[in-house]
Design a protein that fits this description.
alpha/beta; D-Maltodextrin-Binding Protein, domain 2; 9-stranded mixed β-sheet; two-stranded parallel ribbon; 10 helices; globular
Length: about 270
């Protein structure tokens, strides 16, 4: 209810022609669904410590978070990928000095249904599964059953990283099931014995089985030492140097307590 009330107050400010940051002691955050658990947990604790401040958090996708910062419609844009050159050019064109903060590290983990006997896939095998060259589980040591590919949609930062690191920018097979969030991918894989998907490490749960990649397990250690092949940073962007409560919130996220919260959500602290 508190989040709904805050959202309404921000809407009123927007209707009055004011930017989000002008709505008093408030911080508006939108973007990556991967970063969402970190941002939301930090917001809950931050508001308890600062009851005069209202923080709203929405999971809309990395591309939308970056767009919102460029358009100045939020205080913080979350992203599970770095800004693209064209986004940086657009920000410069609009006179927006975007600042980047790495708030956690993450591994993108391929997941299958727990009944699937496959335990490990190489980067080459993952690429061939997602581009459609491998279509049957028996080709990688599984049952003689078709592979059901589950992927993120193109607005997702997780998709962008997977597309660059694993697919090498080749097209995903046309019959792939596209999902809008990490949670939706995990749910789809949990409900289909022959599905494969990929999620941020913080979204692993007992209903899906994490695969190792080239024999390397996703973990805080392999994310930090970069031995896990699909590791990445998680980012928060601001329009210019953060000020006021936006700065206070970011300082909290990057504080020892904030980094413990990120770790508690399954991600890897940067500090």
């Amino acid at each position: 209810m508190k989040f709904k009330l805050v959202a309404m107050s921000l809407m009123v400010a927007g209707l009055a022609g004011l930017p989000a940051w002008a709505a008093g002691d408030s911080v508006s955050i939108t973007g990556s669904t991967t970063v969402l658990p970190v941002a939301q947990k930090a917001a809950e604790v931050f508001m308890k410590k600062n009851p005069q401040v209202n923080v709203t958090v929405a999971g809309t996708g990395s591309g939308d978070g970056i767009k919102a910062i460029i358009d100045r419609t939020c205080d913080i844009g979350n992203s599970s990928r770095q800004m693209k050159d064209k986004e940086q050019a657009l920000a410069k064109e609009k006179g927006v000095d975007v600042k980047e903060f790495t708030v956690a590290l993450d591994c993108i983990v391929p997941v299958v249904n727990p009944v699937n006997p496959v335990k490990d896939l190489s980067m080459a095998q993952l690429k061939e599964i997602y581009t459609g060259k491998i279509k049957n589980w028996k080709e990688v040591g599984g049952e003689d059953k078709p592979v059901v590919v589950v992927s993120r949609d193109s607005s997702s930062g997780t998709f962008e990283v997977w597309n660059e690191m694993v697919l090498k920018k080749e097209r995903v097979r046309p019959d792939a099931q596209l999902q809008a969030s990490n949670g939706a991918v995990a749910q789809a894989v949990a409900g289909n014995k022959y599905a494969i998907g990929y999620v941020g490490i913080g979204y692993l749960n007992p209903k899906v089985k994490a695969l190792t990649v080239g024999g390397v397990m996703a973990s805080p250690e392999t994310a930090r030492n970069k031995t896990y092949p699909v590791a990445r940073g998680l980012y928060m962007y601001t329009c210019g140097e953060p000020q006021g409560q936006t700065k206070a919130y970011l300082d909290f996220v990057l504080s020892p307590e904030g980094q413990k919260l990120a770790q508690g959500e399954g991600f890897v602290p940067v500090k």
